[in-house]
## 1
Amino acid sequence: MRRTVWGAVLAFAVGVLLIAGGARLERGVPEWVLVVPLAVTCAGVLVRRRAPVASLGLGVVAVGLDAVVGPSLGTVLVFTDNLYAAALYGPARLARGLLMGTAVLAIAAGAGAGFWAANWRLPAVIGVQAALVLVTPVLSALLIREQRDRAAVERVRAEQVARLAELDRRAAIAAERTRMARELHDLIANHFSAIAIQSTAALSRTDLDAGTVRKIMASVRENSVEGLAELRTIIGLLREEDARPEEGERLGGEVVRLRLAEVEVLVERVVAAGMKGSWRVEGTAREVPAAVDLAGYRIVQEALTNALKHGESPVELVVSYEVGRVVLRVWNAVGEERRALPGAGAGLVGMRERAALVGGSFEAGPSPAGPTEVRPGWEVVAVLPTEERGPAATEGMSGLSSQVVGLMFPRGAGS
């Protein structure tokens, strides 16, 4: 506001100097009369930002008065600022109308001057002068306005891009936290479930001999050591910077990878915990993609852990290699009394997520019979594709698959 006031004062002072210097047409009126329209145009400068339309109105009135009593060069020059302010700060429709109107006035002024003076060389001179006074300020304002509007659009676009980047960052953090939670759950649950069941059995039985107790404690110690080792492994992987393995993690100088072909280790662990278990392979075992290997291994691991925590003997695992897919089926018997081990339901969610990440399907629920047992039980069935996905599907799943493959753990990893 202060700059506007000083601008108006400066314009008025320069206009007065021009009037005093004779920059006007003599009409036989006192010089102070010419100051009146000059003051009106300068009043328009004062309100050029807050009321650009009023500024234009004051300028038009002042130029009309000045044309009657003068005209004077100072008033005309200040009027150009009234035009400029109206085109720059006023409505867009007004700016376009001013450009068209001033162009018509410039042409009409040149033609009128030539007709009135009967000299057809005069229109070019008058027309150019009128264009300089009328059209040039409006055109300059329109150019600046366009640049300002474009800058505003770019600023809004930059803000939108920043918001989208922030949303992507939050989504990435949420996805990473979900993946870490899934991996930690699958890594720890198996070992600790076995420890809990074996220790509960040892505490609840008073008739166990020293050899049996020692065997149970040895199994508890083995699960504890393996769980701690795998926990250290995943902590080490999380601390690594820029770790982007493609098919496994480099541990001890070699790349290791969890495979469906090694699920017998998981069955043996369940048997060591006190349950009867069996497993078999149907079809011809073959190499499957790394992501499917990891997903299948973890699904079997979690299903066996759930059987250990909530089910009864026996537990049966069937790995079926079919055309274009591998089908995993884990069945366990259930009894009337449920085990007291707590569960948060994250296991089923994690298994379903793992199957979906590789484009497969997952089902879990009561089953009337198992592969060899004719009795009620609980069954988990996961169908995982083993063929390469199409370009469109691969593009959509590549980021998720790379995240899954990115956390490969040593052989024998637990839940």
## 2
Amino acid sequence: MTLNLHPCDKEDDYWHARNFLREIFPLNDRLEHSWHVARLDYWRWHYIKTCNIFESVEKGMALWENADGKIVAVLNHIGGSELRLHVHPHFRSAELENEMLAYAEQNYFATTEDGRRYVYLPIFEDDTQRQELAQSRGFKKQPGWGHHYRRDLDSPIPDSPAPDGFAIRSMGLADDYPARSFASWRAFHNNEPDSNYDGDYSWYANLQSAPLYRRDLDVVATAPEGGIAAFCTIFYDDCTRSAVTVLVGTAAEHWRRGLGKAVMTEGLKRLQQLGCTRVFSTAHEEPADALYRSMLKEMKVTETWLKEIK
């Protein structure tokens, strides 16, 4: 079958790719062999719109289409050297994925300070086809992992109340942005002095403008003395009745009080009420890994594969 490469060059391409991810998700047994649509939205409304990894979506996406113009594969450049391959399971082949990686190596590489080019691709540890293809193209497995957790919401979620004095509620509007932004800083930059925090909370307006964002699934814990102590932001796709926790964290001064578990538990209970049947979380470091391991039931591992381009 002849497939045509279609570099993303217009706004409609994004939305066509988004629909494609929704189409193939159930065909992949509702596992993340391809991105959940929530991850594509987060890539656009956070990585691109806030982190400015590209000036436009078109710089980080390419499509492969059949003769009828139907998408059969999407290649995403997350930023830096990181890649994602999303392939329709009925069209998956080593030949197609080889072409996708060849395109990525030419167009989506990063460069070290001494001028060496490289690309990086996470591959599930049980995906021998993609591992063998990566090896044949000169990729080498590196230290590093991703733990991809999931839970089916077909049974009651055990309660996990917040400590006395803390309140669990939905995220508000603009008045909540400063406290929410500072909570993220304290959660993810706890080794840095607060003087490094620039006070810019405009990124949260970007997040709230994403199509799958809803405030009732943006759960926060407020501290007795005021301010936001912990948060769990979930994107829910009612088309596939599945969700992704896109941001979960606790400000460092409130660690080890069960707040992360409390906000995540509330989020899962709210998902159940909306008809969600499966939720995903991904961890790349120990604190998040411990939380998701305690909350979610199933896990798949991706390994890090890197290629230096000669």
## 3
Amino acid sequence: MRRTWRGTVVVAVAIGMAIGGAGQASAQGLRRLFRLPQPRASNGPPPVATDVPFVPGTGTVVATIGDDFEDEKWTWNYRHPKSSEEQDKRVREPVGRSVNGKWFEGMKRGTPDVVKRVELPAPGLEGSEHGLLIATLNAGIPGRSSYSMEQDDLIYNMQRNFGTGIRAGYSPSVVVRVYMPPLEQWEKRGGPSFGFRAGCFTHAVITGDDHPDKGRFGLEEYWPGFFVCYETAAESKAQKDGVYIKIRGSRNGGDFRGPQVEELGWWTLGMSFTPDGQVHYYASPGVDDLTADDYVTSQFPYNYRVETFKTFFFNVCTRDDGKTWSTPWVVDDPKVYVVQPLPVARSRSSTTR
């Protein structure tokens, strides 16, 4: 059954993240690469919602973006030891990549220890037989266990397969199917287990502690999205362990609690981006297309307005003790859509849904 849910803000631990090597590029270079406008003179007033939410998957699918994992030659090239720039400032190149060039290892954090095309663990989308398994064991600094939660990243290479990000004026959206396994297969650790997130650009006062332009007004990158979290009975004061979805993020950048996952198995998650810079979140059990009934919330995360949707990616989290595997996650058929038609040379879009 589909149900509408509107979240309330709760105190949560934020999980920082940076995509690929974009943090090393100059602001001017990123503006040229992603065709962004020059920064304004100041942050200006807080963003105001002027557009209504729309369901992710609305419009036309961008044929050059996404992956169905049905190619028998789909494999992952591991490049260990993995990067751990976030923890120890070490970027270890070359990074891991898929042979089809669509996915790569984030340099801030490493690639999951297992990235493998597999048969679907349960019937999913009609006509789909394979998805991508992602799981990890050692998610922190290679050869050193932190005994605390760490995460690895699998990033879609939209730059290679599309060329640039998509401006919010085109009303882009991204949708993916995620298999949530039976509870006995979950890592028994309260907190985030899996993330589905977007990489976005805006202009703002730069906040990154290690960014050379911190405190200046310029091009800022941020990462709204979903975290799927495990919760023990002791933590929730419930009679049994459970799963819920957490949203990143509110205007102050904090995470807040979203829908409770009452039924495991396949879920459909989606984010849409309106020209006013809002992020709209939708989630539903099953593999059916999202509808208005699956609406979760609309936000200006960090008080930012999305100017450009750059890419999407997945996080896999574990306790990083050298012996406990993460929950095994299977994703399938991520796709990107636009409501406003893209220039023909850039889009190569297929038919409208």
